Amino acid sequence: MAAASPAPAPASAGASSEEVVKSKRWLPLESNPDLMNKYAESLGFPTAMYQFHEIFSTEDWALEMIPAPVIAVVFLYPIKDSTEAHRAAEKERIAKDGQEVSDKLYYTKQTIGNACGTIGLLHAIANVSDLTGGDVPLAPGKWWHSFVSKTKDMSADDKAAALEADEELEEEHKKTATDESAAVLETEDVYTHFIAFVQKDGCLYELDGRKDSPINHGASSKDSVLKDSMKVMREFMARDEGEIRFTMLALAPAAE
């Protein structure tokens, strides 16, 4: 399984947003569906209903292996000069042209170093939950339900502050990062990054805590989340031909 891996740092890599300097750093997570499912379940996600499945290829045969419907996708990609250039151009385009963003979308900034794996899960799980108009019930009294309920009406910055102050989540993240089945990383300095794709109100959104806002990627539906997310992920890969540090995880019905 792919892990968040050390790589030569581009000039602007490592920032959670252009204006924020991370004061807290966690251990990086491995992009491993078994670990992600264990982590999600420990915080109250119903893995008997939905689980993370690795997508082995962008080709149709691999997509056909994933149980339908896919309700969210988590994507790991390397941060490089090309990705940062695209991020800057995208920011400029949105500032000029604007974009529509659903008010039902759950989105937080990332202000904790190496927390992108946890934030990717939070973006996926919060947006498919029954607390934000989705269909997945979160266990009352458990972390996902409590945190999403408490923060869903907060600003993205206030959600980030709540995450920084949450000792329970920090401890569960640490347990997952140091799980005996996880790849052992020799450095906390990593230059790969997790993001999530979800569908809300008929549009596909990219949720990346390093960006100023969610990114609207156009029309989507509950039945086309995987296909529409794959189109965007292929664009990421095309910007870095020859790069292999990509991992795709689909949140989909549990395998029988």
Question: Could you explain the architecture of this structure?
Answer:
The chain is about 35% helix and about 15% strand. Strands 2-8-3-5-6-7 form a six-stranded antiparallel sheet, with helices on both faces. Strands 1-4 form a two-stranded parallel ribbon. It has one domain (about 25-255): Ubiquitin C-terminal Hydrolase UCH-l3. It is built from eight helices and eight strands. The model is unreliable at about 1-20 (pLDDT under 50).
What descriptive keywords fit this protein?
256 residues, alpha+beta, Ubiquitin C-terminal Hydrolase UCH-l3, six-stranded antiparallel sheet, two-stranded parallel ribbon, 34% helix, globular, disordered N terminus, Ubiquitin carboxyl-terminal hydrolase, protease, ubl conjugation pathway
Quaternary organisation? single chain
Low-confidence parts: 1-21
Strand content: 15-25%
Shape: globular
H and E string? EHEHEHEHHHHEEEHE
Question: Main sheet: which strands, in order across?
Answer: 2-8-3-5-6-7
Structure annotation, total helices: 8
Briefly say what this structure is:
This protein is an alpha+beta fold.
Fold topology:
Elements (H helix, E strand, L loop, with lengths): L23 E2 L7 H10 L7 E6 L4 H4 L8 E7 L2 H17 L14 E2 L2 H13 L14 H9 L4 H9 L2 H11 L14 E9 L2 E5 L7 E5 L5 H14 L8 E7 L3
Parallel strand pairs: 1-4
Antiparallel strand pairs: 2-8, 3-5, 3-8, 5-6, 6-7
